[in-house]
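During the reporting period the student researcher (J.K.) took over the structure-prediction task from the postdoctoral fellow and processed the backlog of single-chain submissions. One of the processed entries is reproduced below for the supervisory committee.
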Amino acid sequence: MKFIIFKYIPALYIPFMANICVACTCSNSPGTFIKYINKNNVIFAAEVIEQIDLPDSGHQYLTYYSITKLAVFNWYQNKMESDTIYYANGSGGMCYQSIRDYKPGEKLIIKSDKSPFPAGLRYGQTSNSQLDSFIGEFSGKPSIEYHICDESILRYNNNKVVGNISINYNSRKRERERFLEKISKKWAEKLFEKRFKKPQKLQKMSRKRFDRIMNRKCKPNNNIPK
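J.K. obtained the following structure tokens:
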């Protein structure tokens, strides 16, 4: 799995990139949630509590633009110091993932990394009482983030886990299209149009089965639920 190096540029350097066209390119992405699990990943199930925007302080060139408050109800790996944690929503152009569009009450299973948020938000900004207050409020609180070059978000509802868990149906169809393109571009284009018009098919799995898989995949010393 590879993604553009801009992912690792600290937020404090972003103000100097205002005139640079930045894009994120992923290659060899895992395609499923369980294919790539790092021992440092923070993995959990949580409910969305609140979506919180950053104060309007000219932060458009920074890495993050909002945070999501989450209430964790199950830890799979690397339990944090609190069950109330904050997801730093970042720019896709900088290779950062976002859960900004999920509504309060929705339940998710998330793979993430610990985040330095809100470090760097003040750099390059003029004095701003709102931003200072925001940084003061969230400094020291458990925060996470993740990049977009991996399957890291699953939905959870009625004891069912939904998403690209161990199978990515869309990826399989793309592979078929690439194969057909070598034979007939016309056939490949028709398949693409057909797939594009239909809602994306997602894998569904019982919570019990998903937990068994995670117990095997996660590190035994990293707070796997029993």
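The committee noted the following: The longest strand covers residues 64-77.
J.K. will present the remaining backlog at the next meeting.
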